[in-house]
Amino acid sequence: MKVLHVNAGLENGGGLTHIINLLKEAKLEDLDFELLTLAEGPVAQAARKQRIYTHVLGTNSRYDLASLNRLKDFINQGHYDIVHTHGARANLYLALIHKKISAKWCITVHSDPYLDFAGRGLIGKIFTHLNILALRKADCIFAVTKRFASLIEKKAKVNPAKVHVIYNGIFFHGDSALPAKYDDQLYFNIINVARTEKVKGQELLLKAIKKLDDSHIRLHIAGDGSQLENLKELTRKLDLAPQVTFHGFMTQKQLKNLYRRMNLAVLTSYSESFPLVLLEASDNQIPILSTDIGDIHMMIPDQDHGFIAKVGNVYSIATELEKAVNTPSVKLKRMALMEKKYVSSHFSVKNQLAAIKAVYQKLV
């Protein structure tokens, strides 16, 4: 079975990680999977680093529809059995040529398709409509949460028989492969790994820490985005500057080194799918706290595995933070180990790929 994964190529963060991890696992299993990006960018660069067989279509702009014939010919001449798209732009391209290719077509929905172009006016509404039409035309849809699956079936009116819930996964490491922990006796260190955008809710986290009024707490925000300067200003207004460090974008290597000193990983988003950053924190044996987003109860099944706060609720976030801060370090470490054992058995890339392959095989 020959499979081609297609993406615009400009993804960064979770979308890029999802694609590269999946193709890396396929390579390890000696499967015939390839990647095509519409343009040169971070996805193609990351794939080459992993020695994944990568093609770049070379579109000139977001609206370069003249490249459709080249894409059609590439797919047909490559004799692919499955074409699997990621992202609205790749979905649109396949929607326009799907009747002219012999391959079956699958889409992974990484985020809420009704919010992908929010705030972009008429153009955003047009792209949202086109993306929904693409979802209806595809042979199968992979949704990364049950909520997304329900949204696609009920609101987008996609045939439920075509929709499959398959959770994201990561590569988990053995304890010996992780950097040695550094036990900071002075501070309780919290890490938030997320783009500094409104949807990630870092302003809620800052206000919650202010409520706790605990000078021993240190917050590390690893991420860049449009709200970075606003968050820095809010930090000053809350008189939290000595307790908060903005690291900006960090590589995985840099993050692993920072994880050594962390006591808790926190995500206070308003909306998420199935956050890989929490799986990565758990892999590094850090207990996790999240707002009640997506299918987070699948990742944190009970209070012995982590902390869950209400979405958009500063008081609830502060309450859960206080529970974590006041939990004895021995118990926190035990919680982190229990959570890692749980998520590594349920949400590995190997499991993710096996579930996707089962759907591919039914299609072909």
Automatic annotation (TrEMBL):
EC number of the protein: 2.4.-.-
Signal sequence, renumbered to the chain: none
Entry keyword annotation includes Coiled coil: no
Keyword annotations: Glycosyltransferase, Transferase
Domain of life: Bacteria
A single GO molecular function term of this UniProt record: glycosyltransferase activity
Record keyword Glycosyltransferase present: yes
Ranges of residues in domain Glycosyl transferase family: 190-331
Glycosyltransferase subfamily 4-like N-terminal domain location: 13-170
Top EC class, one word: transferase
Family annotation (InterPro entries): Glyco_trans_1 (IPR001296), Glyco_trans_4-like_N (IPR028098)
PANTHER family found in the cross-reference section: GLYCOSYLTRANSFERASE, SPORE COAT PROTEIN SA
Identification of the protein by name: Glycosyltransferase
Species assigned in the record: Candidatus Lactobacillus pullistercoris
Species lineage: Bacteria, Bacillati, Bacillota, Bacilli, Lactobacillales
